[in-house]
């Protein structure tokens, strides 16, 4: 998260009002309702994991074993099975 100096974006009277509650501290201002981003949306990790899971499922369907997939992707066999199960449900 990038911090913005309040002096650069807020009028002086609003800064003084805020200073009555928090003086010299970091303050998080949440996004407006309906403007929040889902987990991983900003960083792109959500899409990366989706692609990885699709790749795991495809390799499994081509005959690769759960054990080999777990070693290849540094995941537990249980995690590989969960991914395969989730991808299977998405295909139905």
Automatic annotation (TrEMBL):
Q: List the PANTHER family hit by this protein, alphabetically.
A: MU-LIKE PROPHAGE FLUMU PROTEIN C
The molecular function GO annotations come to: kinase activity
Ubl conjugation is among the record's keywords: no
Q: Which residues form the Mor transcription activator domain?
A: 12-89
- Matches recorded under NCBIfam families: CD3324_fam
Which SUPFAM superfamilies does this chain map to? Homeodomain-like
Ranges in coiled-coil conformation: none
What keywords sit in the KW lines?
Kinase, Transferase
Q: What is this protein called?
A: Histidine kinase
